[in-house]
Amino acid sequence: MYRVMLIDDELPVRKLMLSSIDWASLDMEVVGEAASGIEAINVIDDMRPDIAFVDISMPFMNGIEFTEVATKNYPELIIIIMTAFDKFEYARKCVSLPVFDYMLKPMVRTEVTDTLLRAKARLDARLGDRSKSLVFGSAAPQDDSADEGGSVSEQIMRYIEANYTDSCVNLTSVAQQFGFSSSYLSRKFKQETGRNFLEYLTECRMKKAIELAENNVKMYKASAAVGIPDPNYFGRCFKKFTGKGYSEYVR
Amino acid sequence: MVSGLRIIMLLIVLLLSVSFFVSVFYIVNKERRENITREAVTTLNTLSESISSDIERYKEISRLVMMDDGLVTFLKATGTPVDAVFINDTRSSIMRVLNPTTMVDSVFGFRDDGIYIVSNRNRYSMDFSIINDPEWKQAIEDQKGGAVISVNADGGISRVVGRPLVSIGRTVYDVNTQQRIGMIIMNISSAFMDKKLISISDKKIAVIGTDGTLLSGNDSVPALLCGLDINISEDIVHREIKDGNTNLLLSIKQLPQMPIYIAVATPIENGFVMYGTIYVLLGLLLVFMFAIAVAGMYITRYITKPVSDLTRALDETTEKGTLKQIDIDIPENEISVLKDSYNGMVERVNNLFDKVLDNEKAIRRAEMRMLHEQIKPHFLYNSLETIGYLAMEAGAEDVHKALETLGSFYRNFLSKGEREITLKTELNIIKDYLALQKLRYGDILTDEYDIAEDTLNCRIPKLILQPIVENSIYHGIRLKGEMGLIRISSRFVDGLLHLSVYDTGIGMPQEQIDEILSKKQYNGDTDSAFADIYDTSDSFGLWGTIERVRGFCENDDVVSIRSEQGEFTEVEFVIKPRTR
Questions:
Q1: Mean pLDDT, to the nearest integer, of B404-418?
Q2: pTM over 0.80
Q3: Set of chain B residues whose Cβ sits within 8 Å of the Cβ of A12
Q4: What pLDDT digit, counting tens, does each position of A106-149 carry?
Q5: Which of A16, A66, A68, A90 to mutate to test the interface with B (most CBs of B within 10 A)?
Q6: Residue A190 falls within a domain, yes or no?
Q7: How far is Cα A240 from Cα A203, in angstroms, rounded to an integer?
Q8: Is the minimum CB–CB distance between B526 and chain A shorter than 8 Å?
Q9: Are residues A75 and A169 in the same domain?
Q10: Please, what are the domains in chain B?
């Protein structure tokens, strides 16, 4: 089963994609969705997708920017750009980006299926080449010698506390920072702290957000200040974390 | 420009006057000299001829004397004693010859033995060193019987009291033997010239011997001759000299084969000048200058001034930036032709402008029509209805409703290609648009309408509010991440239609408002939009709409934007209502 992630700011588009394609027959499953580039970067480590459908027109971090970040951090990821007609010619200009294919909206199922089949063929071939290594699979720990008690995790926690306002901080960027594979870091972090990496990162951001909310800071400003510049995603995270809307915190 | 021309004219007049007077002065001087010279030459030639012919006559008389028997006898009578009787006989013989003549002073007969006879008893001062000088005598003999003219016999004979003498010397030969027998010198009183000179008395004129003896005429002339180098080889010599304060032209002629000069001294100032000619020239000059002045006035009035007026009028139209026909008062001449042809050109250019504009409009209309054709509204509407029906059949009520909204949106959106629609239609477009956007993005906003009833039928440019609403969503509300409000209001204030779109989005900084309101081309090309498709600075839709409304109303002050960052944005149009 290959893992697919849908990144589009329109919920109906994502839902349509999810329900109109027969994923199972392609030996694929949709493991996650994101409504903006920012959200995608935040959750991509949990999703560990092989294929990402990316819309170009999204606020805060558009498809092109997302592709730039993603191809740097996840070189194996197959990116398929989805674009509306009026942005298509412009998307064509980014051929320098290692994008697997460009597709024109509105979506036509057969075209999407064809593209997915070609993507699957490439993934199959890659699997054949390196059967032991999946893109986000069971990466072997590179450096066990760094296992000095909880110090690595503590270092990482300190690093997160110092850098969570940077919207580019996520599991992969931190792993690269510390010289681990992201899967190893994820496992090790969980082992040592008993907590999920993303949960911890989000917790840091939300604690700060609560503080800002109590100081009557506007949501869009708070969201940028804690490293989630997409206020829509920020709002969802906030609600999930506190159980209340941001505006309810603001008096 | 005018003063420049005037200066040139003045210079021309000045130059003309100066050159006129210089040349007049020059011509007058030249004329005077030439006239004086000519007169002097005439005088000299006349006198010379007259005196010469007189002297010739005396020479003839001297020949008669020479051949007088009494004298010949006296000269031949060598050895014979010369007594009083002999002398008397000889004298009377000579006097007989001389009787019919006047002015002959005396005749001297010289024998080679030194004895001589004088025809009268006047007292003479004799210098025998000259008379007996062999060289002097030889000069006379060399004439072979001809006469030699001299003054006072070159100093040999002169009256003790009386006028200087013109002497005619001859060698006398024996008729039969052709042997030299002696020499006679006939003396003529220089008074014979006085008569001739008196007739030309208005000038200083004198007859002078080469030795400076004044023979006749004005006694101040010999002094003028002093120190002058007179070249005898020339026929007439002219010299300009200064005598006291007067400039004199001194003209000198030597009588042919005689040691006698005639000199005429004429004051140059006295020279005859053709003042009549000069006055005519002066008159011509005045006429000419008057003509120039008239021409200058003509040029100023009919050319220079119209040209400067024309230039000013042209400059004015250029400053205004529009090509307008010139309407100024210009005299009927070439300049007015120029004005007319300029106006003609302006008319043609304006016609061309209009034509180009019309063409452009026609092209635009054609393009719009083609776009309209491409959209194929009927096909779209029919398809939407069909799908709507299918949805109804399948029990999907909400799908039918969405399709209905979409159909309604497109029908109003296209509005049969009209440029103006009623506010009511525009509001319907916005309502449909927002309904569809809510389907896409969920409940991210609420919309409110505060519409004055009397504004509903106002005709406004099509799609001036919808792009503002779209801008409110994408660049205001969605970026804030909170539930937003869009409020559309319309009302009449002082007869003007106020339309505003208010949203509770993130607002925009003043610099961005200024940039949007500025007339300069907004960077709407795809390259610069590369990195920020949804970036807040990409407000091309807003800018383009504002430009469109400005163009439609032909007024830049129809829009205002108010905003507070993090709170709201309000775009307001104030336009003249058009009802129909």
A1: 85
A2: no
A3: 439-440
A4: 888 899 999 999 999 999 988 877 654 444 444 444 444 444 54
A5: A90
A6: yes
A7: 11
A8: yes
A9: no
A10: 53-194 (3.30.450.20), 275-371 (no CATH), 444-575 (3.30.565.10)
- Looking at the fold, whether A78 and A191 belong to one and the same domain comes out as no
The residue out of A94, A129, A164 marking a domain boundary is A129
Q: How many CA atoms lie within 13 A of B430 on its CB side?
A: 28
Task: Return the bridge partners of B247, or none.
Answer: B242
Q: Within a domain: residue A135? A: no
Nearest to A220 among B441, B480, B533 (CB): B480
Do A199 and A120 fall within a single domain?
no
Domain that holds residue A36: 2-129
Q: Which of B533, B536, B537 has the most A C-beta neighbours within 10 Å, making it the best mutation to test the interface with A? A: B533
Mutate to test the interface with A, among B480, B526, B528, B532 (most CBs of A within 10 A): B480
If contacts are CB pairs under 8 Å, which of residues 287-316 in chain B contact chain A? none
Contact A65 B531 (CB under 8 A): yes
Quote the CA–CA distance of A151 and B539 in Å, as a whole number: 50
B364-371 contact pairs (CB < 8 A, 24+): B368/B417, B369/B417
Scan residues 89-148 of A and list those with Cβ closer than 8 Å to B.
Answer: 89-90, 93
Residue B486 pLDDT level (bands cut at 50, 70, 90)? very high
Predicted pLDDT at B487: 96
Q: Does B440 touch chain A (CB under 8 A)?
A: yes
CATH of the domain at A178: 1.10.10.60
Tens digit of each residue's pLDDT (9 = 90 or more) over B437-476 = 998 888 889 999 999 999 999 999 888 899 999 999 988 8
Query: What's the rounded Cα separation, in Å, for the pair B155 and B143?
Result: 20
Longest CA pairwise span in chain B (Å): 199
**Number of domains chain A contains:** 2
Asked if A31 and A48 touch (Cβ cutoff 8 Å), the reply is yes
Decide if B253 touches A, using CB distance below 8 A: no
Q: Which of helix, strand or coil describes residue B331?
A: coil
Mean predicted confidence (pLDDT) in B115-137? 85
* Mean pLDDT estimate for chain B: 83
Contact A235 B481 (CB under 8 A): yes
**Location of structure tokens 């010397």:** B169
Q: Are residues A122 and A18 in the same domain?
A: yes
Query: How far B543 CA lies from chain A's nearest CA (Å)?
Result: 19
Residues of B whose CB is below 8 A from A230: 481
- Identify the residue with better confidence: A25 or B309: A25
A137 falls within a domain: no
Chain B residues with CB-CB distance to A231 below 8 A: 479-482
**Across the strands, what pairs with B124?**
B159
Residue with tokens 């999810």: A18
A140 domain-assigned: no
Regarding whether A241 and A164 lie in a shared domain, the answer is yes
Residues in chain B closer than 8 A to A87 (CB atoms): 533
Evaluate whether B164 touches B191 at the Cβ level (below 8 Å).
Answer: no
